[in-house]
């Protein structure tokens, strides 16, 4: 990357974000591959200043997806993130290209997003579903190519990695980062710039860029589905399914029986038609965070016993909005995911027949998530944009300082095996295992994890490779991060936990779009 003189960053109060955060702008090149192009892009940065004494520097955060916005997330979750990292650093984020305020990748107007939401389905929901998915994916590829043609090839991960380096240069600091696939990419592209980087909830980057699907991503999904039932009886007072009076294996079998039944005979619960697709939506969302499991258990207990009540309706409405505006907001993340992931991915296929082996392999990897994941893969193999720059290396890299890679034992989206696969390429990196359920370490409250992440960022101390942190809070206990950490009055229990459903917590961010964004 060419050396440039970058203007200093001037921080000011934020006009559009909650909390005590600061904002600034940074101008970067729009197209890093075209030196003669003078067009630029303004990154809108947000900073949550250090809370413990004088700042030791900055940590640049990315919240994954791809497609998730970062500015709003940092503004609302920085008390927890400060607690996780030790509070001695400024936390900084910007919306990656294609998201939020940075070249937003829309594809559709609001009505088009509604249609996108309504036409999504799991590939095993019927004998004609896969064909419908293929056709819908073709439509999405064509529509996005027409509506986003000016910038659709400028939002790839390699360009975002270069944006991160521009931010680091402007801060006049070494590279501190907390993320996953983007973190792996920037570390591989700029290994000499790495000071301290944490990859948390690790995706296989080889498959992300070069496979027809993210097969490895779903390796542990079925184990997490099983855990919903196997951990229920540890706290029967918080798990409505304990009223069934049967063991965990039978509870799980009842779930699979229900899923099969509602494929052919959906159940009405208030304004909701609970069919195969809706049930997949709800449970797939719950794989992210075990704090949702008590609410899910309440819903399943009602379905198992033929009930329909307001508590069940409230659970369903937390995952599936009942308003036009809510549906639009929930599915708004879908186009950025397609735009970023699919333009990063290299393989393309021409026919549905060519896709079928990929779908079959997804089914083999995960009984539950295999048919949920097929939709995105059908889109990517037909995608018409190609990112102007992709990282083409092999992720076998010696960085200036070793990475810390953190992964839960049972993560339905980024399995532990991926953490070790990535670690094998980054020389000297260490894996910290977290013995819990959910996606990334933030889903598993653990004081041990906090201790090691803080020690790494503040003192450069790595845990032993393969060290295991136990969870401080377990599923169905009714406890969360705010019960074991002092997050400050500004955080508040509901700011971290989200919505209460009959006394059970539904973390914010679980919405219908998420089930189809996988």
Automatic annotation (TrEMBL):
Transmembrane segments: none annotated. Residues 367-469 form the Peptidase S33 tripeptidyl aminopeptidase-like C-terminal domain. InterPro entries: AB_hydrolase_1 (IPR000073), AB_hydrolase_fold (IPR029058), Pept_S33_TAP-like_C (IPR013595), Serine_prot/Carboxylest_S33 (IPR051601). It comes from the Eukaryota. GO terms for molecular function: hydrolase activity. Keywords: Hydrolase. Residues 78-256 form the AB hydrolase-1 domain. Gene3D superfamilies: alpha/beta hydrolase. Belongs to the peptidase S33 family. This is Uncharacterized protein.
């Amino acid at each position: 990357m060419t050396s440039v003189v970058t203007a200093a960053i001037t921080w000011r109060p934020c006009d559009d974000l909650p909390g005590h955060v600061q904002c600034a702008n940074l101008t970067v090149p729009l197209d890093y591959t075209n030196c003669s192009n003078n067009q630029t892009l303004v990154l809108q940065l947000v900073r949550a200043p250090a809370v413990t004494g004088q700042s030791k520097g900055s940590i640049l955060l990315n919240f994954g997806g791809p497609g998730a916005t970062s500015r709003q997330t940092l503004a609302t979750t920085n008390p927890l993130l400060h607690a996780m990292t030790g509070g001695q650093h400024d936390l900084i984020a910007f919306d990656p290209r294609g998201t939020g305020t940075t070249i937003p990748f829309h594809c559709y107007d609001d009505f088009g997003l509604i249609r996108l939401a309504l036409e999504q389905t799991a590939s095993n929901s019927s004998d004609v579903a896969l064909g419908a998915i293929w056709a819908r994916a073709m439509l999405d590829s064509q529509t996005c190519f027409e509506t986003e043609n000016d910038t659709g090839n400028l939002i790839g991960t390699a360009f975002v990695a270069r944006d991160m380096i521009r931010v680091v240069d402007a801060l006049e600091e070494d590279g501190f980062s907390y993320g996953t696939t983007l973190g792996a990419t920037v570390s591989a592209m700029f290994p000499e710039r790495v000071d301290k980087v944490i990859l948390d909830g690790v995706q296989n980057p080889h498959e992300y860029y070069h496979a027809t699907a993210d097969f490895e991503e779903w390796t542990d999904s079925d184990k997490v589905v099983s855990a919903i039932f196997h951990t229920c009886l540890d706290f029967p007072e918080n798990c409505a399914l304990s009223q069934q009076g049967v063991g965990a294996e039978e509870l799980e079998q009842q779930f699979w029986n229900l899923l099969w039944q509602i494929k052919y005979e959906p159940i009405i619960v208030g304004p909701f038609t609970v069919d195969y697709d809706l049930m997949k939506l709800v449970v797939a969302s719950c794989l992210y965070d075990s704090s949702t499991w008590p609410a899910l258990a309440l819903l399943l207990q009602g379905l198992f016993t033929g009930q329909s009540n307001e508590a069940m309706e409230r659970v369903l409405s937390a995952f599936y909005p009942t308003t036009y505006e809510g549906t639009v907001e929930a599915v708004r993340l879908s186009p950025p995911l397609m735009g970023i992931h699919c333009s990063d991915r290299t393989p393309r296929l021409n026919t549905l027949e060519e896709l079928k082996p990929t779908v079959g392999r997804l089914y083999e990897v995960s009984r539950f998530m295999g048919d949920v994941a097929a939709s995105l893969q059908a889109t990517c193999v037909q995608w018409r944009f190609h990112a102007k720059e992709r990282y083409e290396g092999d992720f076998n890299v010696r960085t200036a300082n070793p990475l810390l890679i953190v992964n839960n034992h049972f993560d339905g989206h980024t399995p532990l095996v991926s953490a070790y696969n990535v670690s094998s390429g980054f020389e000297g990196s260490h894996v910290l295992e977290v013995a819990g359920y959910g996606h990334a370490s933030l889903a598993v409250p653990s004081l041990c994890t906090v201790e090691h992440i803080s020690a790494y960022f503040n003192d450069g101390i790595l845990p032993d490779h393969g060290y295991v942190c136990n969870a401080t809070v377990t599923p169905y206990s009714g406890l969360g991060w705010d019960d074991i950490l002092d997050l400050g009055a500004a955080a508040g229990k509901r700011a971290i936990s989200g919505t209460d459903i009959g006394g059970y917590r539904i973390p914010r961010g679980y919405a219908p779009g998420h089930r189809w964004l996988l």
